[in-house]
Specification:
- By secondary structure, the protein is α/β, with parallel strands linked by helices.
- It is built from 13 helices and nine strands.
- The strands form two sheets. Strands 1, 2, 3, 4, 7, 8 and 9 form a seven-stranded mixed sheet that branches. The chain has a two-stranded parallel sheet with strand order 5-6.
- Helix 3 crosses helix 10.
- The radius of gyration is 28 Å and the shape is globular.
- The N and C termini lie far apart (104 Å).
Length: 339
């Protein structure tokens, strides 16, 4: 048998080389540990408060955010500050969020599709909804159509076939969600109508129906139900897939499934470029808060329903919503021209 002899010098050289490479490897590991930036989630949130911009004054959007804020503080371990920034139909607050640093410390609640309407009808805005960092959907309140409780109009067909254009009340201007729902529904179904805008609040527009100043009103179902319970108004139609109100048909049951998209969505989003890990952590916090026992009880008692969606599902849903309304852009621009 042949044998191989390795000298002591060779062994010492090999050991030295191994030691050198070992020290070099440890140096690389230490350098990575010292100089690599920590993950965003590891240091977020720190002692800086998280602002949730509400682009409206007191009302439904404000109520949702202020109710969720304490639960979010417990989950995230950070101070959460609701901040009302009203004006210009929500655009001032929207611009504040859109221009914020994408660090997770400034996010906002968005009225969808309301905030998409100015661009759909050709108005210039300073924010791009397609580039927002969508975080979570809080609620989706389907629209419904209401008339005065003692109105002689008993069905949508009767409303459509009046001897004159049916009159509708809507708060705000022509780009408000209720105005859009009115125009698309009535124009697409070939029903003569007249839209009366400028009411200062949702309550004032509903009061116009109760007084008989107008024939009807489109509005989120949840906002109309208290007036139904008090006997002041009556529902003709809901925009749910299957009506939740006994004796009231849904628009889908009447053969118009496409109108199921009509509704008010309260959605949380941050500025463009929000890191994925921070967005996911915020999304999880909102979902955990909405599913807590305390807020579930509040939702049921206050008739403020949650319709939770995480960040990915919200982004997909917002894409569908914007494509739906973009498809009616030409109709809306024609109807609102000069108004």
């Amino acid at each position: 048998m042949n044998s191989v002899h390795i000298s002591d010098d060779t062994l010492r050289q090999a050991s030295g080389i191994t030691a050198v490479f070992g020290r070099l490897f440890m140096f690389v590991l230490i350098s990575v540990a010292l100089f690599s930036p920590p993950s965003a989630v590891a240091e977020w949130p720190n002692d800086k408060p998280i602002k949730i911009v509400i682009p409206f004054g007191p009302g439904g959007f404000d109520t949702y955010v202020r109710t969720l804020a304490p639960a979010l503080e417990e989950i995230l371990g950070a101070v959460v500050v609701p901040e009302n920034v009203p004006g210009a139909g929500g655009r001032i607050g929207a611009n504040r969020v859109y221009r914020a640093r994408p660090d997770g410390y400034t996010i906002g609640i968005w009225n969808m599709p309301g905030m998409s309407m100015p661009a759909v009808v050709g108005e210039k805005v300073r924010y791009d909804l397609h580039s927002l960092s969508w975080i979570a959907q809080l609620s989706f309140d389907h629209y419904a159509l209401a008339v005065k409780a003692d109105s002689p109009i008993k069905t949508f067909e009767q409303l459509c076939k009046l001897a004159r254009p049916a009159t509708f009340a809507a708060q705000g201007g022509f780009t408000e969600t209720a105005s859009i729902a009115t125009v698309i529904t009535m124009a697409e179904l070939g029903c003569p109508y007249k839209l009366i805008t400028g009411y200062q609040s949702s309550g004032q527009a509903t009061l116009a129906v109760m007084r008989g100043d107008v024939d009807a009103r489109f509005n989120p179902l949840g906002s109309l139900l208290p007036y139904v319970s008090s006997g002041d108004i009556r529902l003709l139609l809901t925009f749910e897939r299957q009506s939740s109100i006994p004796g009231v048909p849904s628009v889908v049951e009447l053969g118009h499934e496409e109108f199921e998209n009509f509704g008010l969505r309260r959605v949380i989003a941050g500025p463009p470029g929000l890191p994925d890990d921070i967005r996911a952590r915020l999304s999880n916090a909102f979902l955990e808060a909405m599913q807590s026992e305390r807020l579930t009880e509040w939702s049921l008692k206050s008739n403020n329903p949650f319709s939770p969606l995480d960040d990915a599902a919200t982004a997909a849903q917002m894409d569908r919503v914007m494509r739906f309304y973009d498809g009616y852009g030409a109709l809306l621009r024609k109807e609102f021209k000069g108004k």
